[in-house]
Amino acid sequence: MSTALAIFVKTPSFSPLKTRLAASIGQESAEKFYKLSLKSIENTIQSTDIMPFWAVAEHEALDHPLWSKFKAIHTGEGDLGQRQHHIYDTLIHEHHKVLLIGADAPQITPPLIQKAIKALDTHEFVMGPARDGGYYLFGGNRSLSQEIWTSVPWSTNITREKLESKLPSKPFHLPLLTDVDTQEDLIHLLEEMPKLPTLFQKKIIEWVTSLAQKTNTNI
Questions:
Q1: What is the dotted CATH code of the domain comprising 3-215?
Q2: Separation of alpha carbons 195 and 159, rounded Å
Q3: 8-38, pLDDT tens digit by residue?
Q4: Which of 37, 103, 120, 187 has the fewest CB within 10 Å, making it most exposed?
């Protein structure tokens, strides 16, 4: 049974990146974190047998070098709900299972991805709850109407709760993790890194630690 995984991304210089994080640490540092996170997630997904896709926000950036390792597909236009529906609906017609993730949770590991895939053997849906009330992973093995996606308030502390309430069945829950949107989230990110981090996860740990020293903050 084939499983597709789409990573929702924005392209540097084409769209604003990590604006809330940039407000605290500066745009250059925020983009540095974003690129480190991308490489970490790319490396993690390459360690699985899943079919990976970049879900790229900008149609004109589909050929950007950052997206060369996986097939890049355009998310379409509209709000986050419309874009997720477009990607999920496209892939669920071609694969038995589909997972959606973002680019701001680099602590994700191959075993966590495999746990999500296995959960879809016994559940129609799987969700990875995020600390801020959203989710860092959504997966399913059946189609969903666009109305479900577009009836959810995005980027709020009840986003996951509202999406769950619209689903036809209760999803399997993965462990709670942090997707990085603010400087404070970096604290939780360090706490959630695996005990045996990959080379790319080590680079993020080193970068966050260095940032704390430069800014004299308690990260």
A1: 3.90.550.10
A2: 30
A3: 999 999 999 999 999 989 999 999 999 999 9
A4: 187
